[in-house]
Amino acid sequence: MIRVICLATVVFGCQPQASPNERPIDVTVAPDPGAKADGVFDPRRADLVLSELRRVNAKLTSKAREEKYARMAGSAFAFFRGSAHLFYRDLAALEAAVDGPLSAFEGPETWLVGDMHPENIGAVEDDDGRVTYEVNDFDESVVGPYLYDVWRMGAGIVLSAGAFEPRDQDRFVAAFAEAYVDSLRDGPGASGLTADDAPRVVRKMLKRAARSDRRDLLKAWTDDGRFDLSHEDLLPVDDGVRAALEAALPEYVEQLRGPLSGRHEWFEVVDIARRVGAGLGSLGTDRFYILVEGPTGDADDDRILDVKAQGVPAPLSPTGSP
Question: Does the structure show a pLDDT above 50 at 81?
Answer without folding.
Answer: yes
